[in-house]
Predict the structure of Glycerol-3-phosphate dehydrogenase.
Amino acid sequence: MYDVCIIGAGVVGMNIARELTKYNLKICILEKEEDVSCGCSKANSGIVHGGYTDKPGTLKAKLCIQGNRMYDQLNQELHFGYRETGAFVLAFEEEDLPQIQNLYDMGIQNGVQDLKIIDRQEVLKLEPHVNENIKGALYIKHVGVTSPYEFVIALAENAIANGAEIKLNAEVTGITHENDESFTITTTAGDKVTARYLINAAGIFSDKISTMVGIGDYKITPRRGQYLLLDKEESYLVNSVIFQVPTKMGKGILVTTTYHGNLMIGPNAEEIDDKNDVSTDEKTLDHIIATARKSVPHFNMQKVLKSFAGNRPVSGLKDWVIEESPVKNFIHLIGVDSPGLTASPAIAQYVLGILQNSGLSLIKKETFDPYRKPIIKVKEHNFKGDINASDPQEHLICRCERVTEAEIVDCLQRGIPIRSLDAISRRTRAGFGTCQGAFCSPRVKKLIAETLGISPEEIKEKSSASSLLAQRVKRMNLKKL
């Protein structure tokens, strides 16, 4: 029997798992997909938010600020990729300025440090490529960008190294509560898992999991956000994260560089019915482009690489629900939308407190190792990589992102089974460059097969979470927008 079972291997679930491995506990994580970080944790903006948009006094505001302050240390330990960039919220019209002042006031109430309202000239000095007709902006120093899926992967690898067990392809199909003593969880993997405590971190499916234990109080509506990713050549256009004044639907269309240096614009916010629908469409993307040009007018759509979409779990409540439910020892996390990525390390500590108050004994593990080595190796200017090199450290498999044989072999040996090119891309960036895998995909597939001793036919192009049925606008059509 496990002490704690966590349903969901996204950024919240894996932060909780890693936090729990600091103690003498037997931990299990159940994930319905074939890899970690396959839900909204992989398809979001990757912004570590500043905490100025959330209503003062809410759990969301409190945990966002706490989580923001934890990223630098976590990155030093786990090497997933994080850098502080700062951010601007632009005012385009005079009537936007009172909203900028309101955001400033909320940020101060929330405890955000180094906030200031600046005028047009100061913005243009720091961000010369934004709309020259702006009226001013709110500047937030402590905003950053991270690679969200690499963060989850790093958390998972470190949790496994410290004793946690992850069961993939294990969608929960039923839960029984045995005399208030333990839970028995059945999954599509066929085996049954028993645990004294059960944590519902299932994201957009958290309402479904709650229903399985008899709690039907919640309904999660997926809110889809579509994005466009452009080549790194366009990254000169912004130095920080560029926001517009937020609306009731979210923080609006942003323009930013990703952690790895691509220009990214989006997302929109549309409430849909199908939780698995991560398609994109030309009409919406055209709106995103037009809105983003209001902030940064001159990005070149000939440099677009792809579109993608992710769904955020919206509960319709005024705040996140993170608590022990009326079902003893069942902790659920409901409606953890943005800034859930930012808050996730603090959410883990908050859940730890709930477990302790519920009676879970927390005895520190002397052997806990907080460190995890990076997969991606920084290539210096004198790097001698070549597609024909015999040394695995120099043998390039992916030319665009300069990914070596050694990096791909490394990621295959870290405790998480990998059976798709998608999973390799999330760990090494192979296939994420200008050619979008046209050159490297067959080379990656061959290397996986050789390393694992399996047939190339067993390796999928995409994971099931990147549904081949999802209609995404083709690159050649994106260039026409």
